[in-house]
């Protein structure tokens, strides 16, 4: 990471760095994820047949609880329409997932190695981080569109415009950085990220927060998302092995993947913990089993 890269990150709220991982390292991460998916146990709330409104509510609550308690676990999050009413796959299981998260960095050796690699530590030090910690990690699939599945209402989602600080709030703001590693080429056609350069300087207008214990839903939003000018978004294609550094307040999105190519990504967030308060209202909380681990291991 050069001084010019640091300057671009500070000015635009993001920067692309090529060559973080080799092609072989990317393939190893993808192969390990294929093994994880093949061995996964599908959550009970996905396997149950629901027929009444009350049971549908229980399904929704089960899904919400599965998410909100995933910060110190490796869990599976599926696209809509990939199960039949008995909870059986109607598409290949390797094409059924939206993401796997949120503690790959803690429990999977290959992902842990990448997260704490000298290159990642070097980036953090170049950005001036004194005591960064890893807050969460995800493997995002962004599967390719297959028309043969469309009659099953299989979705190929876009990521709507948002700021990471909406979900990972700190006081002061500006302490969270996303690292988005392309394990395959990320292009305009297969769903690369788009940014509004400089938008990290405008604060946030919406927060996702935990609701009081014993209430449902388990999370809610305070405030509303701004309406953004579509013409201000700039595409950020990344070659396989490259990484995008994402300021916690920069506005970004991705489009649907309507190409014949997949777009697998390993992404994680780090936070400067020195003189920073992690909001107790965030959906994601450190636990006794997994406090946020220090990025620097030496």
List the helices and strands and how they pair.
Elements: H1 3-12, E1 14-17, H2 23-39, H3 44-47, H4 53-68, E2 74-78, E3 97-102, H5 104-107, H6 109-115, H7 118-126, E4 132-140, E5 159-162, E6 170-171, E7 176-182, E8 193-195, E9 206-210, E10 219-223, E11 234-236, E12 243-247, E13 252-254, E14 265-272, E15 277-278
Antiparallel strand pairs: 1-12, 2-3, 3-4, 4-14, 5-13, 6-15, 7-12, 7-14, 8-11, 8-13, 9-10
Care to describe what's here?
With 298 residues, the chain is α+β, with helices and mostly antiparallel strands. The protein has a single domain, classed as Jelly Rolls, CATH 2.60.120.620. The chain has helices at 3-12, 23-39, 44-47, 53-68, 104-107, 109-115, 118-126, and strands at 14-17, 74-78, 97-102, 132-140, 159-162, 170-171, 176-182, 193-195, 206-210, 219-223, 234-236, 243-247, 252-254, 265-272, 277-278. The protein has a seven-stranded antiparallel beta sheet with strand order 1-12-7-14-4-3-2. The radius of gyration is 19 Å and the shape is globular. It comes from Myripristis murdjan. Belongs to the PhyH family. PHYHD1 subfamily. This is Phytanoyl-CoA dioxygenase domain-containing protein 1.
């Amino acid at each position: 990471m050069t001084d010019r890269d640091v300057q671009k990150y500070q000015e635009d709220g993001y920067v692309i760095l090529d060559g973080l991982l080799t092609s072989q390292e990317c393939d190893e991460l993808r192969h390990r994820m294929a093994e994880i998916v093949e061995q996964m146990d599908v959550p009970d709330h996905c396997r149950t047949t629901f027929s009444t409104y009350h049971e549908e509510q229980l399904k929704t609550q089960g899904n919400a609880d599965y998410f909100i308690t995933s910060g110190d676990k490796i869990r599976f999050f599926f696209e809509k329409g990939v199960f039949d009413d008995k909870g059986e796959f109607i598409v290949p299981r390797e094409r059924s997932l939206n993401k796997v998260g949120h503690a790959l960095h803690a429990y999977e050796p290959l992902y842990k190695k990448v997260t704490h690699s000298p290159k990642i530590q070097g980036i953090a030090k170049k950005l001036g981080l004194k005591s960064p910690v890893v807050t969460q990690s995800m493997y995002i699939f962004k599967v390719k569109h297959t028309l043969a599945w469309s009659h099953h209402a299989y979705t190929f989602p876009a990521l709507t415009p948002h700021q990471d600080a909406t979900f990972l709030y700190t006081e002061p703001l500006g302490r969270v950085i996303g690292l988005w590693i392309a394990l395959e080429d990320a292009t305009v056609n297969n769903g690369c990220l788009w940014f509004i350069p400089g938008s990290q300087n405008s604060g946030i207008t919406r927060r996702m927060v935990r609701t009081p214990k014993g209430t449902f839903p388990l999370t809610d939003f305070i405030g509303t998302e701004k309406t953004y000018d579509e013409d201000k978004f700039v595409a950020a294609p990344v070659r396989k092995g490259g990484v995008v550094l994402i300021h916690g307040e920069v506005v970004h999105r991705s489009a649907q993947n309507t190409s014949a190519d997949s777009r697998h990504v390993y992404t994680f967030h780090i936070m400067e913990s020195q003189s920073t308060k992690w909001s107790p209202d965030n959906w994601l909380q450190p636990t006794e089993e997994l406090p946020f681990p220090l990025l620097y291991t030496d």
